Structure formats: C-alpha cells, structure tokens
Amino acid sequence: MIDNVIQEQQQAVQTPPPAEGNNYKLFQQEAATLTRTLITGYQEAFQLIYLDPPYNTKRARGSRKHYRDRSAHWSEQLHEVVSNTYKLLRRQGFLVLSINQMELFNLKHICDTVFGSECFIGLFPVKIRHSERQLMINATYHDVYEYLLFYRKDKQTRFYTEQKHPRLEKFDHRIETLTDQPERRTIQGKEVEIYHPGQYKIHREEPAVHNLRRYIIAGKLATANWSGEFFESYLRPLGDNLLVRVPGLENEGLGYRWFQTQTAKRSSGVYFQSTLTAGRPVLPTNDLDFTEIVPNVYKEGGEGIDFKDSKKPEQLLEYILSITTRENDLVGDFYGGSGTTLARCIKMKRSCITSDNGAEAIGIITRRLANLREGKDIDGISYDFTLES
How far is CA 164 from each of CA 170, 247, 283, 319, rounded to the nearest angstrom? Predict the structure, then answer.
C-alpha cells in the first residue's frame, strides 16, 4: 500500500504545471527525494524556491519534545536539496533559505558551492524576539534573530520592485535641432550625431512629460554613472559647446541620450534625461522586524493551526514572494511546516508545490487549506482552488 502511494506521488510530480492558471500540490515526502523526483518534469520551472529546513540546533525544539533538531548528516542532506533546487529554478529564479546562527555559515558555504558566491545576493536578518523578553533562562545568550539567505541563479537578475515616479517639475528643457546634416562619428561602436554652435537650440519651458531634465556631469555623475563616464571619456575631447546625440544610452526610453559639452563658462558637461527612464526603483530593504507579529502568528491559518515552533508569519512570505515572483509563477517549499508558503501563494495567485516528511505537518497544512476554502483563516476570505496530492 505504501509503495503504491509513493509510486502515485512520483507520477503526479512529473506532470508539468498548466500554461495558464495556478496549480497547487502537496506531498508527504522528504525534501531530497522529492526534489530529485521533480527534476524529471519541472527542471527550470520554478521562479522561487523557499527552504526552511531544520536548523540543526542540537536541542529539542520548544513544545515539540518528540522532535529533536539534531542530524549528523545535516550538511550532506542540505547539499543535495540545494543542488536539486538549482536544477529546478528558472534562469531568472531565486532561492531563499531560512536559518539561524547555528548553521548559518555552513549553509552559506553549501549554497556558494552550488550557486557560486557571485550569485549570493545578501543576508537578511529577521528580528523575531524582543530584546527584553528573555524567556530562555538557561541559554548562554538571548538570540533575537533568524536569517534569510537570498541567492539568484543568474547574477544579473534583480528583485521585482515598485517604481518611484519622477518629479515632473524638473523636466523643463526642450532640444531643437536646426539642421538635418549634423557631423557623424562612430564612437565606441555608437553612431553619434554632433551639432555645432548655431545648429541647435536648448529651450527652457514649463515642465511637461515630453520635456527633458538637465543634469550637470560632476562628482559621482562623472565617475560612477554610465552616461557621465561616457561623456568624460569620449565626448569631452570633442570640443566646447557641442550638442551630441548618443544612441543606446537610454534603451528603454528614447533610444538615445543628448549631451552638451563644456563651455568657456562651464567646465562640466551636461546630459538630458527623458521622463521615460527617470523613475527609480524602490529597493527592497533587509530591515525585517516581526517582533510584534510572531507572538500572534499561531492565529494565522485559523482553528487547529497552532504550530507552536518555527511557524513563519504570512507577512514574511508575502514580502519574499513580492520581490521574487509575479502572479502565476511557480513556487516551491519542500519543508512545508504549517503551510504558510502554500497559503500565501493561493492568496497571491502563485502556483505552488510544497511538501513535508512529517504526518503531523501534512495534517496541519490540510486543515489550514480547509480553513482557507471556508473563509476561516485569519483573513476571513474564502478562496477557491484545487489541491492535488
């Protein structure tokens, strides 16, 4: 009977997710075994894999006295899981791991070995306890942090971010060219147009979305900005009081960028930016403080989901999902625990495959999903979804 169940599960995980809509699967299986099996049907399919493995603290974990967090083969087991997740991730995908200080550096070494240290994004401390609420009187010190390790499969991949809109009042310049026969040169592979004095005018007007913003190329703009560096290296030597049109420096906007070289009165160059590329991303922060949320996290999921140890706040998973995924992306969590990742994926319209090797955890996740369907979790909203197992 058990062999039949395992065989059915292995057949189920080899079916790729549908092209449209969201797909949810739950398995009772050990992480290394499941991830190894998933490679057959889901290689390079996941946008995010979140792992919250046993921390290997070498002690009994709080209220669950029957579960001792100790493994002599912890590093070997995690290395296999991380290696498998690398194969499961899309090229632009992310791996996020939750850990505490006990195995933090061992885990980072494992991930560096698999992903390469250049694909390590950063360490995000997560504050989960108040400094003054010291309940573990026999501990050597009061540990208030857990940690998230963020990795990307491709070192060029960036987090999804919100865009800060430009200040329109700064866009008050308009460029007028007076000839269709400018001087043309090839500079660094770019076919630039050079307008000499008398061949152009720069107007100052009321701010408008079609106008440009003027930047003086000085300080860090001259040394740490791509447009500034290009000007200093290649355009300044062309001479004074020139207007230069350079293609390829604003690819997502106009397709080109205007420069004005230095003058007798102004030693710095100038470049002009359009509103199309003027917004800037609001970067994610690693200042994560959940000390006010963690004491009440047992309420999340509704009745019967009182998973007392290691239960992560939905707000934490919402944060991770928001910066690493978009709707309909596929997410994996192979240490399912109380099902926070799966529940949050349902609420945020992400597909999800999750698993846990413990019957207790599977029972809790199943109850949590029932609460979610009936609108009995903390949000009080009913969700319609299909779960495969």
Answer: 15, 25, 10, 18
Residue that finishes a domain, picked among 252, 281, 310: 281
The enclosing domain of 80 has a CATH number of 3.40.50.150
pTM of the predicted protein model: 0.72
Query: Nearest to residue 261, comparing CAs of 334, 338, 187?
Result: 187
Nearest to 245 by CA among 183, 171, 201, 173: 183
Are residues 35 and 118 both part of a single domain? Answer: yes
The domain containing residue 48 runs over which residues?
2-161+283-388
Which of 281, 304, 331 represents a domain boundary (last residue)? Answer: 281
Closest Cα to residue 182, out of 138, 231, 246, 266? 246
pLDDT digits (tens, 9 = 90+) for 242-283: 999 999 887 667 899 999 999 999 999 999 999 887 766 788
* Pairwise CA distance, residues 79 & 84, whole Å: 9
- Taking alpha carbons only, the member of 54, 100, 59 closest to residue 77 is 54
Number of separate domains in the chain: 2
Task: Please check whether residues 253 and 349 belong to one and the same domain.
Answer: no
Q: Tell me: do 139 and 15 sit in the same domain.
A: yes
**CB count, 10 Å around CB of 315?**
15
How many CB atoms sit inside 10 A of residue 264's CB? 7
Place of tokens 């290691």: 310
In the prediction, which pLDDT does 309 show?
59
Number of Cβ within a 10 Å radius of residue 92: 13
The verdict on 157 and 296 lying in the same domain is yes
DSSP state, residue 232: I
Helix axes 31-42, 74-88, angle to 10 degrees: 20
CA torsion sign for 337, 341, 342, 347 is positive
